[in-house]
TrEMBL record:
An example Gene Ontology CC term for this record: plasma membrane
Lineage of origin: Bacteria, Pseudomonadati, Pseudomonadota, Betaproteobacteria, Burkholderiales
Signal peptide limits: none
UniProtKB keywords: Cell membrane, Glycosyltransferase, Membrane, Transferase, Transmembrane, Transmembrane helix
MF terms in GO: pentosyltransferase activity
Cellular location(s): Cell membrane
PANTHER family according to UniProt: MANNOSYLTRANSFERASE YKCB-RELATED (PTHR33908), MEMBRANE PROTEIN (PTHR33908:SF11)
Name of the protein in its database record: Dolichyl-phosphate-mannose-protein mannosyltransferase
Species this chain originates from: Sphaerotilus hippei
Amino acid sequence: MSLPATSLPLHRGGRVRPDDRASSVEVRQIVLLFVAALLLNHLVGTWLLQDAPVIGDALQYLERARQLFRGEDDGLPHYWPPGAPLVLAGLFTLLGRADMAIAQVFMSVLSALTTVLVFLLAHECRGRRSVAWGAALLHGLSPTTLWMARQTETHTFCALWIAAASLFAVRFLRRGAWTDLLLAAVYAAALVLTRPGSAPLLLLLAALPLVRTRRWPLVLPQTAAVLLVALVFLLPVLQFNHARGAGWVLSTNNERNFFIGNNPHTPAYKTGHLAWRPLEALPADTQAYLRRHYEAADPRQAMMQSSLAYLREAPWAFVQRCASRFRNYWAFDYEQGRRLQIHLAALGPVSWVPAVLQALGSAALVWLFVLGLPALVRQGQGRWVGGVLLVCLLYQLPHVVAFSSPVYRAGLGPLICVLAAAGWQALRAERTSGLARPSHRSRLTVAVLSTVLLLAIHVEAAWHLVALR
């Protein structure tokens, strides 16, 4: 049994290259990929990482899921976005237990499923198994994926929702089936519940019917259906928080995030520094400033008003920080590896291996991602590439205005891997085929400039990492 391919690599003029006939995806390949990814996640988690427990923010989400499972109601609104805790609480309810081991196995399964979705998404977009396998390997073997596979991190959920929503969105664009559009809407709504800042992507999906056709009698019902699905998922949470005095919001940590990244004590580059350090470890004047807002009668209002007042006083500082946050987002990621280093500290210098591997792996993946973009555009894939980049930028947008870290890029991992694999295949095709292409000197110039630009971003991140360690 096989699934038909629906996309073919094209010449600039739109003709299918004879050596690029579409290949089918066999169900046994999908099963094999899932089992292999699941086994790899298990082996890395239990052997290499020595059964590391749930750590960092992931532990907060796990504890919230346990509260929901036990039916505990403290009368407070959702502080953390409720998407991940709700899914975990549903799992615990189904099994009747809320063990950490159960959560870790479940997260490992979700991570393996995401790798399968990356494979299917790449095949749907490019129609070649070589590209699909390349994208799946880039995702499944990424240190970021492996280090997070057994953690209840929202990034794993976001990567799954983005991969699934993108797959069905692409299928809708090709076939126009209502089922594909509605499934894409379900996964996009789940993404917003998990990370509310991704709401612009839901609006982008609602506009997708207009991209496919200008037949308004068809566009309007499809757009309305997307918004209705979103309302079904989001309205209960909005009502829950509103009833507890928080307003019509999905979570109440947004004001603090904006405040942390936009106040007189926020570093110019590492804008999340005040959130990642214990209050007691900060300078005395910074501590006093933060405590005054945290202990106000209405902390959320106090923080937001203070941040907006500061932006009016120092708009140029906000612009500079936004530029810094954009650059930092695409720098090397080491955060999960650093957390694991603390768990593995008894191993001495060897404990730093996860952090180093993650930093190198994430930097290499971004390099492949950027390097292949010009080749894809030259092969007539500019519209597709532009769509993926628009999704990436909209997903990044909240981190540009609040505070940023390369770890937040993990949710975009599936799209980055698909473009990286497709771009690499396009570069190889330019060397081996008769396609019209620029000179070797021109391609080399683009590659060198891209490498220098990314290297500058990584060096800047490393310098600030040492300065504010």
